[in-house]
Design brief:
Elements: H1 2-22, H2 26-30, H3 35-64, H4 74-101, H5 111-121, H6 151-174
Helix pairs in contact: 1-3, 1-4, 3-4, 3-6, 4-6
Keywords: Membrane, Transmembrane, Transmembrane helix
Transmembrane segments: 39-61, 81-101, 108-126, 154-172
Protein name: ABC transporter permease protein
């Protein structure tokens, strides 16, 4: 579910460069709107989209499970939202770096969810080594809600995502704007 929640976040953030290439942001660039404001707007909307998708999926699964004979407590299932949200944030940070560093090749950001599905969910069938799961942010999450959230690891992932977004913005600020 967290991998699926990263898809709207990636799609929203990649709109920044595609909107520039289509010329939709020329009127905004002509005004006194800073790059920080523009980059921040796309990043915040992408973050909200990803976290809302994760929350909706988790809450929907929690509500759907209430019809079962031995239903889990909703709060126990909602722990998976808090457990997987840092991984979605790291994906947003990686996409921010890709936006600033490789605007022409921004589509490589889609490798993150594709590789996550291959390594985490199909890795057992394909006999991938255990370390291949750690190459994706989703591989660092404990088996939540079956186990407790590792808050120190979640904190490091959130900190990493903040650093990646700052690096992505600094790279975006230094590159040339795309002209239509």
């Amino acid at each position: 579910m967290a991998i699926g929640a990263s898809v709207p976040a990636i799609a929203t953030m990649l709109r920044l460069n595609s909107d520039e290439q289509k010329g939709w942001l020329e009127a905004i660039h002509a005004r006194s709107v800073s790059r920080l404001h523009l980059f921040g707007a796309y990043t915040i909307v992408g973050t909200v989209a990803g976290l809302l998708a994760l929350f909706a999926g988790t809450f929907g699964m929690a509500l759907g499970g209430q019809g079962a004979k031995h239903a889990f407590d909703i709060s126990r299932i909602m722990r998976s939202f808090w457990g997987f949200a840092p991984a979605v944030l790291v994906v947003i940070g990686i996409v921010a770096v890709v936006l600033g560093l490789l605007p022409r090749y921004q589509q490589i950001a889609w490798i993150i969810p594709i590789y996550a599905v291959l390594s985490i969910y199909l890795g057992g069938l394909l006999d991938f080594p255990e370390w291949t799961k750690k190459l994706t942010p989703f591989g660092w999450i404990n088996k939540v809600p079956l186990k407790a959230i590792q808050w120190n690891q979640a904190g490091w992932l959130v900190l990493l995502s903040i650093v990646l977004v700052v690096v992505g913005y600094s790279l975006y600020r230094r590159r040339d704007l795309v002209e239509n």
